Amino acid sequence: MVPGVILPAMTYPPLGFGLGLRVPHFEHVLQHKPPVDWFEVLSENYMVAGGKPRYYLQQIREHYPMAMHGVSLSIGSTDPLDMDYLKKLKTLANEVQPAWISDHLCFTRCGNVNSHDLLPLPYNEETLRHLAGRIRQVQEFLGRQILMENVSSYLTYSASEMTEWEFLAAVAERADCLILLDVNNIYVSACNHGFQPETYLEYMDADRIQQFHLAGHTRQGEFLIDTHDQPVPDPVWDLYARAVELFGPVTTMIERDDNIPAFDELLDELGQARTLANSTLGKTEPVTGEQHAGTPRTADPVY
Ligand SMILES: [Fe+2]
Q1: Structural domain boundaries of the chain?
Q2: 209 alpha carbon to ligand 1 midpoint, in Å?
Q3: What is the 292 CA–ligand 1 centroid distance (Å)?
Q4: 107 CA to centre of ligand 1 in angstroms
């Protein structure tokens, strides 16, 4: 174990089936209170006090549970942790009271260079030690366990000594954090690097898996690119079914960041996820989303 703060080994109650809250849907969500169990919000979009995004965030939060998802923690960087960023994150969390906070197992910055991209890390003991200490520091500062998400990648490092799934499982264990498993990212990386995506899933410890991401991707030549601009494709649905089989009714969310369709189109896609999860778990209740009444609610999802 890495020395440091001891946080209780716990998982958060599941939220059900959610969508990313995106600007083009703010008004629709507020007016119609669509039957979505929860929303994932991009932390960085709401870190400035005031303005329209904060207005909609506050209004919509009154009707839905939320989780905060970040892209700028840069947990794998060799730079010191960005305490200004963490203070803003904590302030926002105090306001939003999210079910949980997540970010990516990657680095985005080094020195004065900000890549604005989620860059993969070498999978070895040195990186493991580095990450475990930093994740524990972040958890101590925020006073809660965080979720780390697997990123998609298009390259590997000669310094890697283990597989990505061994690395992710070891990070979660040593840092005592939870995992946001992006099923699409596993599929994209599996195709790009030539491994079996099921092997990845089968290696993971169910106790650490708190959330799934689903998304679409784009083929460019020999590579799949994690573009989030398409509906979830069949191979990702198949892998999701396997993930549900292995890990049970894990909170699920569809990520769409580009080519954003009408809200109802995403709602239909979310219904597909709910139906697939229910049928995989052998449940027969219809997927109606009627449990969402458009009023403040605690997590009470139907699977
Ligand atoms: Fe993701």
Answers
A1: 17-279
A2: 14
A3: 24
A4: 15
Assign domain 17-279 to a CATH class.
alpha beta
| Gap between the Cα atoms of 156 and 235, Å rounded | 23
Q: Model-level pTM?
A: 0.90
Based on the number of CB atoms within 10 Å of its own CB, is 290 exposed (0-12), middle (13-18) or buried (19 or more)?
exposed
* 3-state SS track over the chain: CCCCCCCCCCCCCCCCEEEECCHHHHHHHHHHCCCCCEEEEEHHHHCCCCHHHHHHHHHHHCCCCEEEECCCCCCCCCCCCCHHHHHHHHHHHHHHCCCCEEEECCEEEECCEEEEEEECCCCCHHHHHHHHHHHHHHHHHHCCCCEEECCCCCCCCCCCCCCHHHHHHHHHHHHCCEEEEEHHHHHHHHHHHCCCHHHHHHHCCHHHEEEEEECCCEEECCEEECCCCCCCCHHHHHHHHHHHHHHCCCEEEECCCCCCCCHHHHHHHHHHHHHHHHHHCCCCCCCCCCCCCCCCCCCCCCC
pLDDT tens readout for residues 194-241: 999 999 999 999 999 999 999 999 998 889 998 888 999 999 999 999
